[in-house]
Write a structure and sequence with these properties.
Elements lengths: L32 H20 L14 H14 L11 E7 L2 E10 L3 E10 L11 E5 L7 H6 L9 E6 L4 H4 L3 H22 L10 E6 L2 H14 L6 E5 L6 H12 L1 H15 L4 H4 L6 E7 L7 H10 L4 E6 L9 H15 L3 H4 L5 E2 L2
Helix pairs in contact: 1-5, 1-8, 5-6, 7-8
């Protein structure tokens, strides 16, 4: 984002969103409608700066995308200088070891895309010794932190798994203290995902043919726009997995916010959030995504309800396997949903189900 982003100054009451499935958080109630309007005005300022990039955007190749998606892709590429030759800054690395595993915490700082982190967990020595191990790249929620790693380490064959967890911001609590910082983070998520994959493909232990990309809950909403950009650059993966997600942004955000803010305040908040996320609407990019896919729905999911689940099913092309488990939205304390999900992931990755899916669509029995 440009330096004059600081012009959108001032301070308003922060909103603490529970938009991710792994940690229960409560939103602070907006004390007055004046504060909500002030936050909205500040985000509008950001959106005007964001929209300003469109005037200098050049043509984008890719006839498979519709005009709106092409415009948004062009906007992302020109705003953040995204291209196959894009250099990714070297991250600051911290390594911890526990038993037979080691975890690498990588902190990135990019001039255009700010600060974000990757946490990579694998068998000891996985960065040194060549082993043909499957890799899962997972993006989940704003407050998820290391919890996706903790979840996936319970997959039955996890000892032979390399887990890469994306963190939207190194300090989500701090990002939420200022609405403009939250907006900037949400705007930059696809670019940060793009750089994460670009960094990974240059690592000696990484192999696209062993990569499974997993979007859980809100993470499923941001992945398609980033993967579409990468796909145009020639980046590939073994399979795409979408768990407890969907292809509409409004309804999931409404369900989460209403529980904490009330209906009136939620409608005001969505007037701010929906324009910010419009360029990343999954329905624009899902139809172009290649490769095999696994989709996991919860039959009683109250966050990603049937309408947004159907939108995903209708816009994501095959070959794909669609599984609906008996249960609600996934959470670490929901043993039933967690166990069923881990079983499906284990069979998909280690059982080779992803290789055998050849039909346009297969439904779990």
């Amino acid at each position: 984002m440009p330096p004059n982003l600081q012009a959108c100054g001032g301070r308003t009451t922060s909103l603490r969103e529970q938009v991710f499935p792994f940690r229960k958080r409560r939103l602070r109630h907006a004390k007055t409608s004046v504060q909500m309007r002030a936050m909205r005005a500040k985000i509008i300022c950001l959106l005007l700066l964001w929209a300003g990039f469109m005037t200098s955007a050049g043509p984008v190749q890719g006839a498979s995308l519709d005009t709106t998606a092409l415009l948004y892709q062009n906007l992302m590429r020109s705003s953040w200088n995204l291209s196959p030759e894009r250099e990714v800054p070297a991250p600051r690395r911290e390594v911890t070891r526990d038993g037979g595993r080691e975890t690498h915490t990588l902190s990135f700082s990019d001039r255009e895309l700010g600060h974000f982190r990757l946490m990579i967990d694998g068998p000891r020595g996985f960065t040194v010794y060549e082993r043909a191990l499957p890799i899962v790249f997972v993006t989940a929620g704003f407050f998820a932190g290391t919890q996706p790693i903790g979840l996936l380490k319970n997959v039955p064959n996890a000892k032979q798994l390399i887990i890469v967890a994306f963190e939207y911001s190194p300090n989500p609590e701090a990002a939420l203290q200022k609405p403009e910082e939250l907006a900037r983070t949400l705007l930059q998520v696809p670019g940060r995902l793009y750089l994460s994959f670009k960094w990974l493909e240059k690592q000696g232990w990484f192999n696209q043919g062993r990569l499974h990309v997993l979007g859980i809950s809100l993470g499923s909403l941001y992945l398609p726009s980033a993967l579409s950009l990468l796909q145009e650059d020639g980046f590939g993966y073994a399979s795409l997995i979408i768990a407890f997600g969907g292809a509409r942004m409004k309804e999931p955000l409404f369900q989460v916010l209403r529980e904490n803010l009330g209906e009136r305040e939620t409608n005001e908040a969505l007037k701010v959030l929906l324009p910010i996320t419009a360029p990343y609407d999954p329905r624009l990019y899902l139809p172009t995504l290649e490769g095999r896919k696994l989709v996991i729905h919860g039959s009683k999911d109250m966050t990603f309800q049937s309408r947004t689940q159907r939108a995903l099913d209708e816009t994501l092309p095959g070959p794909k396997l669609t599984c609906t488990i008996e249960g609600g939205h996934i959470d670490m304390d929901k043993t039933h949903e967690v166990e069923l999900t881990l079983g499906l992931l284990d069979q998909w990755i280690f059982g080779g189900d992803w290789r055998r899916i050849s039909q346009e669509q297969t439904v779990c029995e």
